[in-house]
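Regression test attached.
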Amino acid sequence: MVKDYILSLEADRWLVHADILVDRAHVVMLQERGILKKKEAAAILGCLAYLEEQEQDFIEHELPLHEDLHTAIESVVIRELGEEIGGRMHTARSRNDEVATCIRIALRNELLAMMRELNGLRKALLEKAAGHIDTIMPGYTHLQHAQATTYAHYLLAHADAFARDFSRLLQAYACTNLSPLGAAAFASTGFPIDRERTAKLLGFDIVLEHSIDAVSTRDFVIEAISCFANLMVNLSRLAEELILWCTAEFDFIHIPAEYATGSSIMPQKRNPDYAELVRAKSGTVYGCLMSVLSICKALPYSYNRDLQEVTPHLVRATKSTTASIAVMAAMVEGLDVKKAEMEKKAPVGFTAATELADTIVRKTGMSFRTAHKIISSAVPVLVDENMKLLTEHDAEHAAVAEILRQLDEIALSIIGKKLSEMGLTEKEVKEALNITSNIQKRKGRGGPAKKEVQRMIERRRGELEKDEKSRQEKEERVRRSMEELDREVKKKQKRRSIRVIKKPAPNRAGNEE
Ligand code: ARG
């Protein structure tokens, strides 16, 4: 049906709860300002209460019959109360400020929920890290073995990225929680409304002042989805590592059974589908961001119907992001770490090479670049001898001696001197090649040494607690406003039952608004 083209059902379903709140706050304020009579406000509020009780039937049966959510609610109110009373609900406002207000309320609530999930993920990462301070693993650059680190050190890197995501979401929250209500179509209204009052009743931080700006902008949507996109990059990178790490090639982790699936043909398979979908949903979210940017970029001020097309992308991006965070938190929590495998692979590929170069610099006083040259020329031999050193205990002494001999030979050809003559001993070579002491030497700020990682975990636990508290304060502020709105509504409303929404009158099938 051609008329269906204009519908926005998916997004409207997302907004029903917010719209009822907006209607309530608006009617309470209109009555307080003497724009509605007590009796009129009471009847409308009573009607909204029943509509809320029948929300599911309303969504299923009534909503699809109208141009959009706002006209659907108004139609029900008018149908029940008659136009003389019901027709007064929309005094001093437009669907333009109404919809912008609804989106901000719905998004604000989603942001609070998303931040809670994100803090859950941060906690899961910190707690997992706390249990793996001594779990040694190879660290990578270019996905090649680079230097050894610990699993705790590695997990904290991800936790830090998510901590920044949290700050970004807070910022997006601040930009979202502003009230456009009262801007009406774009030019405000001649009725003596009280914008501060509705803003307060609806839990907004402040009024979004300029009436044209208030109905025209969706920058808060762009900002929120940008934050989601950034967060999804971080989630997807973690997901990618989980996917790689549970392969036979890495064999570092075991994804919890609930987050793996079998194959319909290969009985042995355990596929990391959940992590794969986190990786895929990042693409969905970037697509939403691109869509919203493209929809908004050339719109003349103020409202254009194009803006309706923005909302479904916001809904999709929000739901995909929150769900992905929750899945990732659960996976991290249940992750089975193959400590022995990780440790076994930590020295492979001569990951101690950097420490050996550093040791040469410290002992002989030569420049790092020269030491780097000597080691990199010696690498083929060093890799083999290093493996002997690690695997064959009897050959340990011989291997260290061989490494120093090789280094001496190469140093002689490069700088004309042997390292052993410059103060480098076998003991120091052996020490440099010891992965565990290697890690403990990196005790500077941000490094993987045990004490430093413990300090970092403690500090991050404190930061997380603070962040969660400020999130809860926001939630609490909204809750208090909702209670106040509820109190005002209860004081003013007159309950009366309305006809069952399930069976709309036959002549309602068209969109006459
Ligand atoms: N459903 C519309 C939206 O989401 C509501 C606003 C309609 N306003 C208008 N002037 N046609 O944007």
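Expected vs. actual: identical. DSSP finds 19 helices and six strands in the chain.
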